[in-house]
Amino acid sequence: MKRALAALLLAASAAPLSAGEATLLRGGRVVPVSGPALEKGDVLIVDGKIAAIGATVAAPPGARVVDVAGQHVYPGLIDGLNTLGLTEISSVPGSVDVAETGDVNPHAKAWIAVHPHSDLIPVARAAGLTHVLSAPGGGLVSGQSALIRLAGSTPASLVAKAPAAMHVVYPSGRGGFDLAQMFAEPELKTFDERQKERKKNQDKALARLAELLARARAHAAAQAAAAAGQAAAPELDLALEALAPAARGEVPVVFRADAEDDIRGALAFAAQHGLKPIIAGGLEAWRCADELLAKGAAVLANVDRLPRREADAYDAAYTNVLALHRAGVPFAIVTNDPSNARNLPFEAAMARAYGLPAEVALRAITLSPAEIFGVADSLGSLEVGKSASLFVASGDPMDHRTTVNHVFVDGVEQSLETRHTRLYRQFKDRP
Amino acid sequence: MNALLLSALLAAAPAAGETTAIVGATVLTVSKAGNLEKATVLIRDGKIAAVGADVQVPAGAKVIDGAGRFVMPGIIDAHSHAAIEDNVNECTNVVTAEVRIADVIDHRDVNLYRHLAGGVTAINVLHGSCNAIGGQNAVLKLRWGVDDPAQLVFAEAPRGIKFALGENPKRSNFSAPGPRRYPATRMGVSEVIREAFLEAKAYRREWQEHEKKAKAAGKGATAPVPPRRDLQLETIADILDGKVLVHAHCYRSDEILMLIGLAEELGFKVRTFQHVLEGYKVASEIAKHGAGASTFSDWWAFKLEAHDAIPFNAAVMQSKGVVVSLNSDSNELARRLYWEAAKAVRYGGVPEQEALKMITWNPAWQLGVDHLVGSIEAGKQADLAVFSAHPFSPDARVEMTLVDGVVRFDRAKDLAARSAAPAAGGAQ
Fold this sequence. Notes:
Chain A has 14 helices and 16 strands. By secondary structure, chain A is of the alpha/beta class. In chain B, strand 2 and strand 3 form a beta hairpin. The longest helix of chain B is centred in the middle third of the chain and has 32 residues, at 186-217. Chain B is globular, with a radius of gyration of 23 Å.
């Protein structure tokens, strides 16, 4: 009955979805990521999950059969760092919900504000992305991210996992970009003075963060005591309440850090305070791969970036993840770009062109991010029992010339229509 | 190893009579000759002497093994701000036609070396988009390693200037202290341009009359007093005389039509529309005006005026007869323009050679240097990029880049230099 109702609802929706209980993708090259490719095989989808994969799988009665001969079947791509759903037009503040005011916002939750009807979501999805980590940013404690499915019409239906992580901008003490300061007379200071100032700002911010974590733990203990009837309830503090699971190491903490000393600082801080660290950005992760390995921290890395230092090898950012791969540090390749999350496979391609094995590059945008965010039991590879979040492409997704022809999220085929295809159709034949 | 130090190894100028041959490569000529298998590119005196499968390599020529490699014309970026850090925008006035990018080139900007490592050999360094009429641009050849910024200048390239329409000259996404600068609307942007050209016309007339008088006065007579020289109006008058190419930053279709209308009213040509993200909506009008279009492959949604940007833009404009190039506007993106071109295949099915043209011959045409660079043909300057695989392939990596026949980037040398300085990182 529930399923019939769901089918009815889907049939009533405008998008040309196929919500058949069973779909068989027949005769494609199946690339499961978790194991070797099947040169010609079938994938059976039942009730949103992968029911069978094999050289030949019989179609159950009533199943929709999709001929994918000559095409390639891959698990859905996962962008492990983005603001998709929280950003529409980045220069228009009314359309951006990424950064709260103030520095400490652990209670800002991405899953409250992800916009299911964003024009950006279908664009990412049409490129084979099925899931994205949507994360708040800015300040010191930015808030909590959610791993979102790129299908659904309510924020709740978008959520695959929430919270996925707590997000912290590691305080470098350097001070961010300030447009108003661009027009100000620069203050004349020596290098040493600037370094001292930076260290002072950094120490202050870290002490503040440490205090917040201690207070969050104390707040949770006070709440537990109150619940057990041993004490009066502590004063309401939503920020501390939200921070407690991360403070206890139950929810990972994603530290934004690019510079080597910031990455090392974040790892040391996390170890000192019992946090479970993930490094986001990580432009100089290759400079401290051993430390990342020792601390068990994964890295969410962009590939298409300039080297951080003038004297660095020109391809330092391209080979960053190769160094992590060689050292055994877990990593995901990310775009951190809401409007062009569709370029995720091309960031992986650049790492591949500069030495990362092709299968590792593909893993870095599928199974690896699923592992990092603890959802590899259901996402990231084509395996029986996992979610049927997958796509069918004309070839290698890391090749720009490849086209994506079918995208399924949890077994439901998605429309490949976007704002872009609509405008293209509207104007391409205008005389 | 520091790229600056490495530059010393690569900086030798081409010796007269020096001959180099790239042998046994797949050559993507981006010309009528198409793609040539197992071909030779013969370079003499910095120019392409011959290209083909049956070219004889003269004795004494320096031979570069091209087996398994792909050679394409050096990539040309028609929209760059490299080598002018902190000197992109003279924002204090709405018309700054008098300022020149060529005066502020930093020839030691490491980004030039990084560009070469992405196969780029020439860039159009543009003034920023602060002003309705901005400063004059400089077209550079990436002769990394030279000691004088003037040696980077692409001497044969015609002069050019930056115009800007829409949100940037309106300054609508920026807040600086102090009172707002005029204009704050697209209406104002249009009037600023009209007024500047009408003033320039009057200025030109003044000078023409003066020259007529001076000529009539003849020798021995007291020379008439010349009008006061105005570098701003002089530059705009040069646009009217067709001596300066206009590169106009724009996004929305209405402002594109506005500038075409103004240009036709005032008697000048727009050489390129830059960004031109809604060019696909008015492609026929752009083609009719005779302007080129230099666009991003897929940037969108970063501003309200970029909300209707579509990745099919290049393909649609190309199909309507517009000469289209794909640019970077970014020191990072400039290093992978070959994949930006591949996106023209992905979005709209542009044939591969036409897509390659969008980063070679087409930008060369837009900068007025298509007779010199932009394709691999005998007689052209030897600006070449040597790839490890087809440039559109996900395994493609630039192995070597030549400018005027001189190897300005050589990955093998770069890698060798790293063993001496492992702190710089990168794969060994």
